[in-house]
Amino acid sequence: MSNNGRLSEADTVTVVARDFSVPVSWPTVEGDTLGYVVTIGSSVTSKSFILPISSVNWDSTNPFVKIDHDDMLAAAPDNSEVCISVKAYDLVGASPESEHMCVAVR
Questions:
Q1: Is 2's pLDDT higher than 50?
Q2: Measured distance CA(87)–CA(47) in Å, rounded
Q3: Which pLDDT band holds residue 32 (cuts at 50, 70, 90)?
Q4: Which residues are CB-contacts of 15 (< 8 A; sequence separation ≥ 6)?
Q5: Chain centre to alpha carbon of residue 54
Q6: Banded model confidence at residue 25, pLDDT cuts 50, 70, 90
Q7: What is the DSSP string of 61-91?
Q8: Which of 21, 53, 73, 77 has the fewest CB atoms within 10 Å, i.e. is most exposed?
Q9: b vs e for 65-76, b when ≥16 Cβ sit within 10 Å of the residue's Cβ?
Q10: What residues pair up with 87 in beta bridges, in sequence order?
Q11: Bridge partners of 94?
Q12: What is the DSSP string of 10-72?
């Protein structure tokens, strides 16, 4: 810790949360999109959430899902990192997955 009890850029801060959720949002895909698939996973397990745009309370201008701590921890049974990706789907198939965003879960 730096002088006067203040943190500096060189200090490491660790946050421990026992109850948390991860909000995930993405830009709308134009066209005949019927919904989105949000996948969370590690090298060991994965889980997908299928989110049709016809769902109740769906905001097509701001696609969003909140992934709770139980799902995040289940996707990382070895206490590693969890990666999240999104893809859109329509009647023909699915888009490529987005770039993965990874978070450490310990």
A1: no
A2: 14
A3: confident
A4: none
A5: 21
A6: confident
A7: TS-EEEEEHHHHHHT-TTS-EEEEEEEEE-S
A8: 77
A9: bebeeebbebbb
A10: 37
A11: 89
A12: T-------SS-EEEEE-PPPPSS--EEEEEEE-SS-EEEEEEETTSTT--TTS-EEEEEHHHH
CA nearest 75: which of 50, 49, 51?
49
Determine the length of the chain. 106
CA within 13 Å, CB half, 78: 9
Q: Which residues pair with 86 in a beta bridge?
A: 38
Distances (CA, A) of 94 to 25, 51, 75: 18, 13, 22
- Distance (Å, whole) CA 68 – CA 87: 20
Judged by DSSP in three states, 102 sits in: strand
Residue 98: other Cβ atoms inside 10 A: 16
